[in-house]
Request: fold
Amino acid sequence: MKVLGIETSCDETAVAIVSSNKEILSHRILSQIDDHAEYGGVVPEIAARQHIQHLDTLIEGALADANLDVSDLDAIAATTGPGLVGGLMVGVMTAKAMALAAGKPFISVNHLEGHALTARLVEEISFPYLLLLVSGGHCQILMVKGVGDYERLGSTIDDAAGEAFDKTAKLLNLGYPGGPAIEKLAQTGDPLRFKLPKPLVNKPGCDFSFSGLKTAVRRAAEDCIRDNGAITPTDQADLSASFQKTVGDCLSARLDNAIDMFKGRVPEGDYPFVVAGGVAANKYLRGQLQDLVESRGFSFYAAPLNLCTDNGAMIAWAGMERFMLDPAINDIEVSPRPRWPLDSFADPMGGSGKKGAKA
Ligand code: KG4
Ligand code: ZN
Reply:
């Protein structure tokens, strides 16, 4: 079977086709980074207009790459949330129109579920597994019990990990997105020069907090300016390395607690651990997390770097997983949702207004 997946929830317009035997038949992605760069973050209106502008060409390209016609597809999947609603509407309406015109089912995909299941596209990983989902909008630890079956063990109470990377990079004038820039600079920096706070570490549970870290980086940068009149390239590199190490220490400390929680719920065994989302593209953090989970008896899995950040294959694959479980599926009545937590039974962590809980 073949499913085409469309991702338009943020600043990437992406389309991919995957098969039920885990082949990625085509994979097209258009980043809008340059369109948003001068604003230091994603501008929702610009993002939505760019998706409209490019989505049809990307779909045509993805079909051509795979040498397929729409009629050869078995289903069309699109991200219906969470994300920026203008972009979501573009992807969802396009996917629904294609599905109706071709007489194929439309499959609604939760963007977070796309991240959560991507590792299963490239590796044999069985349920249940422990998942650290670290992206620009989310930072959560979940127990993945099955497709559509998630239990949140912990979540950020303020900023997401990727958001902390982006805000720190903005502060250091490194541009957007911040993660890759900080990772590169950190390679030449001293991770021990700046002592930054590690909120919630040594506390029970596995929630996260990153907003204090951002403030501490700002203070440290101000101290550099006061002492030397400017932030030197060495300061930038040392701040990047110290920041990255602190994020890694926080993630590891909280994950260590989550491992205890996971082990308390599932009988003894060799368990999979998966790290997913854009921040999982960071090689330093991957290494640190791998060391921790392997020392605690888990097998470590992470998607290849290009499948960590937002892409169409993760949406096509999550659609495929749902389609394989329920071949009669059709979500044509489902509408875009700016907020859509994976674990709908958990208490909201924040933003429980009329749009619903953020996480
Ligand atoms: O998953 P993603 O593409 O989009 C969301 O769903 O949010 O994640 C984007 C986030 C950005 O905050 C970006 O700075 C971060 O992932 N990121 C990284 C790296 N590459 C991307 N963070 C740390 N190190 C990286 N190499
Ligand atoms: Zn994402």
Q: What stands out?
A: Residues 10, 135-137, 162, 165-166, 177-180, 183, 277-279, 281-282, 309-310 surround KG4 (ligand 1) (CB under 6 Å). Residues 233-265 form the longest helix (33 residues).
